[in-house]
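Subject: sequence -> structure tokens, single chain

Hey, anyone have a minute? Need the predicted structure for the following. Not urgent.
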Amino acid sequence: MLPFSLRSIMVQDLEPVTSKVQNSERGARLLEERNRLGLTQPQLAEVGGVSKGSQILYEKGSAPTADYLSAIAGFGADVAYILTGERSAPPVDRSMLGVPMADFVQVRAWPKGRHDALEEIGEFAFHSSWLRRYTTSPGECYLFRTYGNEMEPTIRAGAIVLIDQQRRDPRPDGVFALRREDGGLNLRRLEPVDGKIVVRADNPAYSLTLLSDRKRILGEVIWQSMAMVDPVEGHSTWR
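Reply:
Had a minute. Here:
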């Protein structure tokens, strides 16, 4: 069954879709919708169940199939606008993705997969196209505010870090979140050496150790940010 946004379009509006007539304006509107959703051509093609080549042709004006339109409508594309040039409703901005910020000390819940146990204390919005440049799993990312100085000067105490739980393969130029035995969290570099994994902090005051259990790796830091001044009066620091 076609989604409501397709069923609501009159039959005469659907006729050009099943024909072989090129329609460059329709293709331009499809491109506009793809950009609004913050997706690349391969990403929208995957949503629609077609190849990248078909997506390119659709954006040049070739007639998309009803199955394709039904699929992208389910993702949020305004199919009525693509076909007729008239919006079915005010467009929803799906170009931004919210990433939850959780309490730094609650990572003991991660190994059990109990994400609902993490107390979310805020949310950051990232442009979806930017976020997908660095992670294939935006839903597996969490933000935390750091407290220790072990990764200074690379990551200062108080910085907010974005951790991707899907990225867990040790590499010396990355920074990873490690679960401590007491359930806390450390940020460290991980360097494979002779079959072992050396754990290193950027702050020379911290000594080298060896990682005994790879399950302690919770993810890799893919972004960091921090304010340069204190919050204005009446606003929380999220600490």
